[in-house]
């Protein structure tokens, strides 16, 4: 996966691979790659367990003005990263890789998970006008100033991507998207827990339909 990032991204970047403990064998693999390519480094998450804590740890440790969140299981296409970053550099606060817009595709996902994700994404696009057909996909690029202004409240699963879309929509900040082809992982076990995390997704889903200035934000409107 990391070699695909190195080959697929042409813009200057740093790639932080977040793990949950010092004994994770991923650290050794990243160190071996980093010995020849210093753009890669491992980060040990010491602020909680779960995907949300890992993503927040990566955001804290990163230094770039644009932050891209992507999974390390090979589901996302790293060749999309350049286009996502360029959208943020042009002025949007979130650039989403979309499975459900024209040109996008989702391959191999469990039927119930895929159906719920598609329904959420399309209803948010058409009814809440959030600017992306795929608000629940974690593969997104974010403006650092936006992240700093709104913060991240999610503490458990992958609902963080939907949270930030909802916050941007409430503050009337611009969101854009590009199509992506997402492939279900074929190695390892997914950490996605559908029925456990649905209530957390619903919180942010309904928030996206409201309008308000976000406390502390500098670009929102009432």
Brief write-up:
By secondary structure, this protein is of the alpha/beta class.
Q: Can you offer a commentary on this structure?
A:
With 222 residues, this protein is an alpha/beta fold. The protein has a domain at 64-207: Spore Coat Polysaccharide Biosynthesis Protein SpsA, Chain A, CATH 3.90.550.10. Helices cover 39% and strands 15% of the residues. It is built from eight helices and eight strands, in the order H-E-H-E-H-E-H-E-E-H-E-H-H-E-E-H. It has a four-stranded mixed beta sheet with strand order 3-6-4-7, sandwiched between helices. Strand 1, helix 2 (26-34) and strand 2 (40-44) form a beta-alpha-beta unit. The protein starts with a helix and ends in a 15-residue tail after the last helix. The model is unreliable at 216-222 (pLDDT under 50). It comes from marine metagenome. Belongs to the glycosyltransferase 2 family. Residues 11-149 form the Glycosyltransferase 2-like domain. This is Glycosyltransferase 2-like domain-containing protein. Keywords: Glycosyltransferase, Transferase.
Largest sheet geometry = 4 strands, mixed
Shape: globular
Determine the number of helices (DSSP H or I, runs of at least 4 residues).
Answer: 8
Mean pLDDT: 91
Strand order of the largest sheet: 3-6-4-7
Order of helices and strands: HEHEHEHEEHEHHEEH
Assigned CATH class of one domain:
Alpha Beta
Structural class: alpha/beta
CATH-assigned homologous superfamily of one domain:
Spore Coat Polysaccharide Biosynthesis Protein SpsA, Chain A
| Percentage of residues in strands | 15-25%
Low-pLDDT sequence parts: 216-222
Overall number of strands = 8
What CATH architecture of one domain do you see? Alpha-Beta Complex
Question: What distance lies between the first and last C-alpha atoms, to the nearest angstrom?
Answer: 43 Å
Write down the CATH topology of one domain.
Spore Coat Polysaccharide Biosynthesis Protein SpsA, Chain A
Share of residues in helices: 25-40%
Compute the CA-based radius of gyration. 17 Å
